[in-house]
Write the structure tokens for this entry.
Amino acid sequence: QVNIAIEYYMQSYNLYAQVFRNDHENVEALEQAMITTCHKGLTELQLGKFGAALQSFSDALELLDSTEIDTRRAFPNESEEITRLKLMALMWKGFCLFLMSDLQRATAVYTEAVDTFRDFYGADARHPVLACCLTAKGRLHHIQGESETATKCYSEVWEMITRGQAAGQSGYE
């Protein structure tokens, strides 16, 4: 059953990716290709196939990067969804690298995710995905003996939470 699902995701990704490569204006194909390959990656991750999952998340990111299109300008209505998909692919790619003990590459991927989030939503934005990426990045710095950098990551997450509580919010916007 699981292999059937993985095969379905792979076929769907190949179809949508080909449509997008032939027509860079087809934002729906881009979104569907990213969604299906991320589902494939999550399924592989649950099966303990970390290398295959890493490749799936990398495929989603490579498809997005395969064009020089500025998605914010070209697809203003869909740019937030595309950015969200990119962030999720980066987060899971970093997690795969962490599980495979490639700590330096995992740290770089989480840094890219944090930078992508801030570029799109602004430097003062708060969000659970950003907190997750900062926490993972802090953990990786801590494991690598970079406690000062780790503390900065953790402090930023704490700042997001306390700033939200002072404003009467749950800690995230």
